[in-house]
Amino acid sequence: MRYVILRDDDTNALTPVEYLERLYRPFLDRGFPVNLAVIPDVATNTTLPDGGPEGFLVARNGTRAASVPIAENARLVNYVRENSGYHVAQHGCHHDYFEFDRTSDSEIARRLDHGAKCLMDAGFEPSKTFVAPYDKFSPASFRNVSKRFSIVSTGWFELRRLPKSWWPKYCSKKLRGAPHWRAGKTTLLSHPGCLLSYRRDYNSMLDEVIRNVNSREITVLVTHWWEYFRGNIPDEPFIENLHQTAEYLASQKDIRVISFDDIPQIF
């Protein structure tokens, strides 16, 4: 049996319900879990290198508040809670640039605790899974995150960014060529890049997904809802690729789509 975890990043208080529904109804109707990495208190001034707003702010609509907690979008919160196929992971706190690539334990702890409180204020269960914005961690962040979360999902691991006490386990993982590993009570999952992205070749996108899913026991498929609606315009060919992915996964008897919460029973 092979396992697939679909991870969608950057749901926040400014995300239109209609965008998630359009993207993930084919998954939900098939009983597939959709793991939403939710920004608890989204910063509204995060910009791209060209000075434009970050992609997840595509529906900002002139909001002037410095940050907006997820609970302020009651319609979105109710939609996620009413659809049991959605599973919420904590995606940083504000999604500032490299907000967990820092050394201050007190600041890291403040952001982790504030983010968790924002999710609980919205009525979500405490998340067991953490996703760092831009996949950037410091050793101090890994230490603090591992005290609060049992699963970390990220793109890759670097020795210099890990606590020194984790180095022997990391070296063993590297020697085995394993994409996923454990440090203490924390399960650390990597992913093969954002295979579902508008920056990829649409003609070969599904083939790349299939190749990666077939190459490992557990595959984390990462995508970003806002990439499908750049400029608030639906990218129909890209959306079709996502929905074809759902069709493929449903057609394979030896593939099971799971949530992060299922990992302790599998890995």
Q: Can you walk through the features of this model?
A:
With 267 residues, the chain is α/β, with parallel strands linked by helices. It is 33% helix and 19% strand. The protein has 8 helices and 11 strands. Strands 1, 2, 5, 6, 7, 8, 9, 10 and 11 form a 9-stranded mixed beta sheet that branches. Strand 6, helix 4 and strand 7 (151-153) form a beta-alpha-beta unit. The longest helix has 17 residues, at 105-121. The chain is globular. The relative contact order is 0.19.
Question: What layout of secondary structure does this protein have?
Answer:
Elements: E1 2-11, H1 17-29, E2 34-38, E3 41-43, E4 67-69, H2 74-82, E5 86-91, H3 105-121, E6 129-131, H4 139-148, E7 151-153, H5 167-176, E8 180-183, E9 186-189, H6 205-214, E10 218-224, H7 236-251, E11 255-258, H8 263-266
Parallel strand pairs: 1-2, 1-10, 1-11, 2-5, 5-6, 6-7, 7-9
Antiparallel strand pairs: 3-4, 8-9
Biggest sheet overview = 9 strands, mixed
Task: Describe the global form.
Answer: globular
Which series of helices and strands comes N to C?
A: EHEEEHEHEHEHEEHEHEH
The termini sit apart by 12 Å
- Which structural category fits the helices and strands? alpha/beta
Q: Write down the overall mean pLDDT.
A: 96
Percentage of residues in helical conformation:
25-40%
What is the tally of beta strands?
11
pLDDT < 50 runs, ≥5 residues: none
